[in-house]
Hints:
alpha+beta
Amino acid sequence: xxxTPAEGDKILSANFAPWVLDLGLTVEEVGKDRAxxxxxxxxxxxxxxxxxxxxxxxxxADTATVxxxxxxxxxxxxxxxxxxxxSFQRAVTGSDVLIEAVLTKLGRRMAFADIxxxxxxxxxxxxxxxxxxxxxx
Length: 137
């Protein structure tokens, strides 16, 4: 059974810290091994020069991984970030960001994902990330 975006949004609201919820992330799509989230443009998240802050983008990538793992496992399970690496390629100004996390390997205790972050208006690649998660339950 495939998780719905509404179920992904419930995982967000029930399991993430208030500062992550303040990012305004919403689940756009969920598949058996992936999730797409939207990070809405906000002046609050912009740095000098108007680009979205790297910290917000990294938190969004990390969060998208949790939703992708949850979708693959059929629901939320406790997990924690072991490693995240992010390469920024261009600034995003005045546009939402679409974050797609695709699981490359899901084991009983570890999950690996590749994440792309794209300007929602132009489709231009803003950043790439990879994450490793430890599944605790």
